[in-house]
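Exercise 7. Given the encoded structure of a 161-residue chain, write a plausible sequence.
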């Protein structure tokens, strides 16, 4: 299962056989995982249609999907850790800090490209949302560098008069 944010807990609803999520911060509950928006059900121990091979294949697919989901979640977490640095960036596109941040964001995008979705629409959607989030961070970084660059140009041109 994907990690939960601080203050969250997962419990089993005996009447439906589904897991639900408790947010102790807001004292609310919901059926979907707070980060991945997936609905969880306990693992089935019985064979699917009495066929052990199908049950094993289904379990392998679940493991692949969970792994892919965790990979996307991890990339998003690492990208979000860069947000404060990006928001406070005051340099140009030639600065080492800019180049480091841009390279890191591009590397994270490549990691997302490598995540297999195994035909699962929810993984594809998660991956797409993560790519868009990283693209927003790249756009913010580029805008801050352009803003700083134009500020330096206007300061330099007024000093030369």
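Solution.
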């Amino acid at each position: 299962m994907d990690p939960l944010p601080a203050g969250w807990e997962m419990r089993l609803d005996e009447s439906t056989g589904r897991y639900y999520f408790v947010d102790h911060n807001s004292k609310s509950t919901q059926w979907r995982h707070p980060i991945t928006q997936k609905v969880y059900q306990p693992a089935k121990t019985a064979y699917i249609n009495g066929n052990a091979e199908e049950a094993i294949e289904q379990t392998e697919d679940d493991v692949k999907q969970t792994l892919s989901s965790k990979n996307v979640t991890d990339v998003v977490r690492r990208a979000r850790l860069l947000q404060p640095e990006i928001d406070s960036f005051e340099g140009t596109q030639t600065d080492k800090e800019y180049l480091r941040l841009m390279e890191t964001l591009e590397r994270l995008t490549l990691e997302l490209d490598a995540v297999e979705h195994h035909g699962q629409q929810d993984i594809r959607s998660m991956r797409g949302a993560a790519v868009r989030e990283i693209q927003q961070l790249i756009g913010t970084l580029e805008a801050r560098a352009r803003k700083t660059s134009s500020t330096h140009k206007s300061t330099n041109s007024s000093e030369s008069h």
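Remark. Strands lie at 8-13, 18-23, 28-30. Students should compare their own answers with the one above.
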